Amino acid sequence: MDRTPPLHPFLARPGALKPDAVTPAAADAAHVANATKAAVEFESFFIAQMLKDMRATTREMADEDSVFKDRVNQDMQDMADGILAKQMAGQRAFGVADAILRQLLPEKITPGNT
């Protein structure tokens, strides 16, 4: 008898290990929630990256004595941009999360658009 562990425990032997009983509705709701969370986090990352690039351009164009050249101010602006990006993504301001959800869950009604 082969005693090597399987790559996936649920695929070991029929009837040997079974996943926890999860109803299809609960699994579906969990899938929608996970997809929504991932889409909103991606939109947050997208907005933060855009703001970071905009700040970098502003810093390059600023004079040497400008507040934009001060390292402490740069760190604070970066933190504020991160918070702003999360807030905007939470409100789905740019629609990136909604576009992703339309692709991931085409037959479902995307959360927030009931």
Question: In words, what does this structure look like?
Answer:
- The chain is mostly helical and 114 residues long.
- The protein has one domain.
- It contains three helices and no strands.
- The longest helix is centred in the middle third of the chain and has 38 residues.
- The radius of gyration is 23 Å and the shape is elongated.
Radius of gyration, CA atoms, in whole angstroms: 23 Å
Major sheet details? none
Structure summary, number of beta strands: 0
> What are the low-pLDDT stretches, counting only 5+ consecutive residues below 50?
8-13, 15-19
In N-to-C order, the SSE pattern is HHH
**Strand percentage:** under 5%
Mean pLDDT: 79
Report a brief summary of the structure.
The chain is mainly alpha-helical. The protein contains three helices and no strands. The protein is elongated, with a radius of gyration of 23 Å.
Mind sketching the topology for me?
Elements: H1 24-61, H2 71-90, H3 96-104
Organism: Massilia jejuensis
InterPro entries: Flagellar_prot_FlgJ_N
Domain Flagellar protein FlgJ N-terminal: 52-103
Question: What descriptive keywords fit this protein?
Answer:
114 residues, mainly alpha, 3 helices, 0% strand, elongated, Rod-binding protein, Flagellar_prot_FlgJ_N
